[in-house]
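We were asked to recover a plausible sequence for a given structure. The inputs and outputs are reproduced exactly as logged, with field labels preserved.

PROBLEM: sequence recovery
POSITIONS: 299
GIVEN STRUCTURE:
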């Protein structure tokens, strides 16, 4: 008896490419969902500027899922189809990871030169969501997994990763491990120039307590973006002295008194000791506009 005939014609090759395409997009969607889970799970390790997690994030999950599907289509156009074309023209499906790396390198070089970005970080950001799904799909293809097998594997891996994210978030909340801590600076370290909003806000804090404000937000603006400029004074309030009658949070504060501006917002410490920031929250729970933080950083 002879060996069974192996079909390598156009139909078989098309089936292989179809499985590679389907597996890539499944892996991309699963990877995006896990990335969102990691982002939410690590929220306690970032500065929320006193706002906490916006409940609107969870309400927007259906919309974000549609965005992920759209991004999956974009991934197909930018990565999967070029890799399939290169595989068809220059090599077998075993070469798909190599072609994915080549496509990622080409996009990295273009992005780094066009926007003057660091090549290393740009390569990681592009190769992660771009090339890894193609590599995963190529591995699944070589294991002879069909569409249902790929979907089952991706779904199981995504579910396990989300459970790990949930458990990690629970531990982080309970133990405080890796929780964000505002910087504790001396009064002298707050003296200097501060800018924010792409240069829209400017604040100069003098060593002797003098202050110069340029377009700084007011406490109770008539409009959301009302600002004021002028000269006055500033006062540094360390965390242990900034409680008063009402609890004002575990942060150092800078209080401004600018002539002609009325009462100014308190500005609280944020950022890191190497890159300190001051922030103030605009709006309140009764406003039609959502609350958000405005930040300035030291020049």
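RECOVERED SEQUENCE:
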């Amino acid at each position: 008896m002879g060996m069974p005939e192996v079909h390598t014609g156009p139909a078989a090759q098309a089936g292989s490419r179809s499985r590679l395409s389907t597996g890539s997009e499944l892996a991309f969607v699963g990877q995006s969902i896990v990335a969102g889970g990691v982002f939410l799970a690590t929220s306690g390790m970032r500065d929320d500027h006193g706002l906490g997690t916006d409940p609107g994030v969870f309400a927007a999950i259906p919309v974000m899922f549609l965005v992920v599907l759209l991004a999956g289509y974009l991934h197909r156009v930018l990565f999967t189809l070029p890799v399939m074309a290169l595989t068809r023209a220059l090599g077998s499906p075993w070469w798909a990871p190599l072609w994915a790396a080549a496509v990622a390198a080409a996009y990295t070089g273009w992005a780094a030169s066009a926007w003057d970005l660091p090549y290393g970080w740009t390569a990681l950001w592009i190769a992660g969501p771009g090339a890894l799904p193609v590599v995963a799909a190529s591995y699944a293809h070589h294991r002879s997994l069909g569409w249902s097998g790929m979907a089952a594997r991706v779904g199981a891996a995504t579910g396990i990763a989300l459970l790990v994210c949930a458990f990690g978030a629970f531990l982080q909340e309970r133990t405080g491990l890796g929780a964000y801590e505002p910087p504790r600076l001396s009064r002298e370290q707050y003296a200097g120039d501060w800018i924010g909003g792409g240069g829209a806000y400017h604040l100069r804090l003098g060593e002797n307590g003098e202050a110069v404000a340029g377009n700084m937000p007011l406490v109770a603006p008539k409009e959301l973006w009302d600002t004021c400029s002028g000269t006055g004074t500033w006062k540094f309030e360390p965390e242990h002295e900034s409680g008063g009658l009402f609890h004002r949070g575990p942060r150092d504060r800078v209080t401004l008194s600018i002539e002609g501006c009325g009462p100014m917002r308190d500005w609280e410490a944020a950022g890191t000791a190497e890159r300190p920031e001051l922030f103030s929250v605009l709006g309140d729970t009764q406003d039609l506009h959502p609350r958000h933080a405005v930040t300035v950083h030291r020049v």
